């Protein structure tokens, strides 16, 4: 039997065992019980099957094979299910229950009525054999009913005009359409909001009534849309009188404090905390004196004030002070002014282990306008047990970072253009960070960056981010001994590109489509594009003022060479909702960086692209894939000891590129509705891609991009993941398995063939690539979904 067939055989046997184990659940039942193993829906149109299935009671749907198997392991005793001390793991068996079958039948029939099948009749057919039950909900639909006529009756002609102007142009209700109660409900909701936005504060949904006449000839219906007046005869339109803003203390109790009326906005302001200014908050109070009452303005005010992230409670209340006048009161309760958060994690990769620890201090109201100040400290260390000496001598690298961010909830611009915040909260961010990195005996880096960023929303789904200023300084330096060895082995170009100082002055722009939909189940696309340019301004100035050149021929500013490059990245995703908690995601990610001008021949280490990691090709650790068909065994020194040491020191330095292509396919589904207080979801995935250099390089043999070779250099990985949904955040554990590894040649790239003779394969790999060790599996732990 070939290795491929053995793998297929093993996978098939595993699935059969799981299926067999779940089906054996029937033997644990009492004689009068039956396990539901199949639910079908005969006679239901294909396009409605999934929606109809949602009306089947969860307790009589077939169990998940894996979940039921887990439940059986912990909750059976002496050939029967436990009735006491039941452990809440897995999923309890879904047994046949006649009352739930009857309830589901009724619900399915009601659902079909809402889709125009008024003569539908649903009957359940049960088949029980050896304590296993199959349920088939058989529907006799009859012909669907169509809307022949729509009658409108508005007792107030003003409402008739509102409907004609606001609702009718985009109405889903059309004569001749198949009856659909969902569209009817949407129509009522649109009209309700249209009326409330015209000032009718007291208008209720109860004033709208919809009737359906099914007595017409044939399969035709007539709809009656009636809007009645209140008992007092007319609907009153309201205007806004006085608007007041009260900032309350943490206990939410009002106290007597001095009130001031703003002469510009007319808003009465009372701050019981003495910490806030009116102007930064008032710009997101869309209900103003003299306006007509508008429900959309109320909802918009709630959204933006909460988005400022400085208030834990926002309340807008109204008081009638005249026959058509409303006084409005905003009441805000701030979040705690300051907070401190400590985080830590243990890391393990490629036989090395270490830890990261960080501290974040936050101040949520620095200048009285809910501005957020964050000060972050982080330290990480990685130990390599293969290094000689005591614990201190085994430090492979350490990394210290400190950063300061100031987020202002508005656009701070020197001219009059500003975002109204209609579609999202605009922000201005000032950021500064310093990184000190050292890899023992190899490389050290000092990196300092300052940025100014503006982000705003053009529409509900289109976001812009513009960073007009990216000011950075970096000083990278190789250990003298390691540097000499690199030069000795012919890696002069690599040394020059990393063992140097540089100064960067550039800008960035990003555009994002459909970001708000990422947390929802549905059919949609997501796209993001980023452009990063650096050195163009300095290039022009250097031509005008004749900047000095260093020994390498690069022009300098304050004695430090400056960068020139163009970088672009694109990320496209397609989300498809498959019903229930099932979703399919396709992602394509591409990037390219082109150094030119002042550093046209040099790859920029910090700006380089890499592959692998928890959000990319998950079967590879970050920065360990590619470029192209590069294999570290190509590194040769004058003797074996030098070769092995050189490979060790080049880790994370040699597997970078200037071009990246990646694609991911992921299927997501629900495993458990309740697992230790969280929802446990599962995912299976296939990842493909690689990185390449744009030019040949002696360090990365076979690493450059060539049209006739790049397809054969695509890496393929697959795997399975668990996601623990805590509502506020998601923890993720993914296990990736290498299938095709481009560092090998021809058929040897399909490393999945060696999964069952892994020891021999790994031993041979270590002989040619030592001290690197080959791993088929890569485990990734993270927070949030990968994409």
From TrEMBL:
Q: Does the keyword Nucleotide-binding apply?
A: no
Which compartments is it annotated to reside in? Membrane
Q: What is this protein called?
A: BamA/TamA family outer membrane protein
Q: Does the keyword Signal apply?
A: yes
Q: Where is the Bacterial surface antigen (D15) domain?
A: 563-749
> What keywords tag this UniProt record?
Cell outer membrane, Membrane, Signal, Transmembrane
Domain of life, per UniProt, equals: Bacteria
The record's section on PANTHER family has: SORTING AND ASSEMBLY MACHINERY SAMM50 PROTEIN FAMILY MEMBER, TRANSLOCATION AND ASSEMBLY MODULE SUBUNIT TAMA
């Amino acid at each position: 039997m070939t290795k491929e067939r053995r793998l297929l055989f093993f996978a098939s046997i595993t699935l059969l065992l799981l299926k067999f184990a779940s089906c054996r659940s029937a033997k644990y039942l009492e004689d009068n019980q039956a396990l539901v193993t199949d639910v079908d829906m005969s006679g239901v149109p294909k396009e409605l099957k999934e929606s109809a299935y949602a009306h089947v009671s969860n307790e009589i749907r077939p169990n998940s094979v894996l979940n039921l198997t887990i439940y059986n392991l912990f909750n059976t005793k002496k050939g029967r299910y436990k009735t006491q001390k039941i452990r809440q793991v897995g999923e309890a068996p879904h047994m046949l229950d006649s009352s739930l079958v009857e309830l589901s039948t009724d619900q399915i029939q009601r659902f079909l009525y809402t889709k125009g099948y008024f003569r539908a009749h649903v009957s359940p057919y049960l088949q029980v054999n050896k304590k296993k039950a199959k349920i088939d909900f058989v529907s006799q639909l009859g012909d669907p009913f169509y809307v022949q006529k729509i009658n409108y009756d508005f007792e107030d002609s003003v409402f008739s005009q509102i409907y004609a102007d606001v609702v009718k142009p985009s109405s889903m209700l059309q004569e001749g359409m198949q009856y659909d109660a969902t569209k009817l409900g949407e129509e009522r909701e649109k009209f309700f909001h249209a009326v409330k936005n015209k000032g009718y504060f007291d208008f209720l949904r109860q004033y709208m009534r919809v009737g359906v006449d099914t007595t017409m000839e044939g399969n035709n219906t007539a709809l009656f849309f009636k809007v009645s007046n209140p008992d007092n005869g007319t609907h009153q339109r309201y205007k806004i009188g006085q608007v007041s803003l009260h900032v309350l203390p943490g206990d939410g109790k009002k106290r007597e404090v001095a009130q001031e009326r703003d002469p510009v906005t007319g808003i009465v302001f009372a701050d019981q905390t003495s910490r806030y200014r009116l102007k930064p908050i008032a710009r997101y109070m869309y209900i103003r004196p003299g306006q007509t009452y508008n429900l959309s303005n109320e909802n918009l005010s709630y959204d933006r004030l909460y988005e400022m992230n400085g208030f834990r409670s926002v309340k807008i209340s109204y008081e009638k002070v005249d026959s058509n006048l409303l006084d409005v009161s905003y009441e805000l309760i701030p979040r705690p002014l300051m907070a401190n958060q400590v985080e830590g994690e243990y890391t393990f990769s490629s036989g090395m282990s270490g830890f990261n620890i960080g501290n974040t201090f936050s101040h949520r109201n620095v200048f009285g306008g809910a501005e957020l100040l964050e000060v972050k400290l982080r330290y990480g260390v990685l130990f390599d047990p293969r290094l000689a000496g005591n614990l201190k001598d085994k430090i492979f690298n350490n990394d210290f970072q400190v950063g300061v961010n100031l987020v202002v909830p508005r656009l701070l611009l020197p001219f009059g253009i500003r975002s109204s915040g209609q579609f999202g909260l605009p922000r201005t961010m000032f950021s500064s960070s310093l990184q000190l990195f050292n890899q023992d005996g190899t490389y050290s880096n000092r990196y300092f960056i300052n940025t100014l960023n503006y982000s705003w929303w053009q529409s509900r789904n289109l976001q812009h981010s513009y960073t007009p200023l990216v000011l950075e300084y970096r000083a990278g330096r190789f250990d003298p001994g390691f540097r000499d060895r690199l030069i000795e082995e012919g890696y002069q170009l690599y040394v020059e590109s990393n063992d140097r100082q540089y100064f960067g002055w550039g800008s960035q722009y990003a555009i994002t489509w459909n970001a708000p939909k990422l947390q929802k189940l549905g059919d949609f696309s997501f796209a993001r594009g980023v452009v990063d340019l650096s050195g163009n301004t300095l290039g022009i100035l250097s031509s005008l003022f004749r900047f000095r050149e260093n020994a390498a021929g690069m022009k300098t500013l304050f004695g430090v060479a400056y960068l020139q490059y163009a970088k672009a990245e694109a990320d496209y995703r397609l989300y498809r909702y498959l019903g229930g908690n099932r979703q399919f995601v396709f992602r394509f990610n591409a990037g390219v960086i082109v150094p030119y001008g002042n550093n046209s021949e040099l790859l920029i280490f910090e700006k380089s692209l890499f592959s692998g990691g928890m959000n990319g090709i998950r079967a590879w650790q970050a920065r360990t894939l590619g470029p192209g068909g590069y294999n570290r065994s190509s590194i040769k020194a004058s003797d074996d000891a030098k070769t092995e040491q050189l490979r060790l020191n080049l880790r994370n330095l040699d597997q970078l590129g200037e071009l990246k292509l990646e694609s991911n396919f992921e299927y997501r589904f629900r495993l458990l509705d309740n697992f230790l207080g969280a929802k446990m979801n599962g995912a299976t995935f296939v990842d493909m891609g690689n990185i390449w250099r744009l030019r040949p390089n002696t360090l990365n043999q076979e690493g450059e991009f060539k049209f006739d070779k790049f397809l054969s250099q695509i890496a393929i990985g697959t795997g399975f993941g668990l996601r623990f949904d805590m509502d506020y955040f998601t923890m993720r554990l993914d296990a990736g398995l290498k299938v095709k590894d481009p560092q090998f040649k021809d058929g040897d790239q399909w490393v999945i063939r060696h999964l069952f003779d892994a020891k021999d394969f790994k031993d041979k790999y270590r002989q040619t690539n030592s001290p690197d060790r080959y791993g088929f599996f890569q485990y990734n732990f993270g927070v949030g979904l990968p994409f």
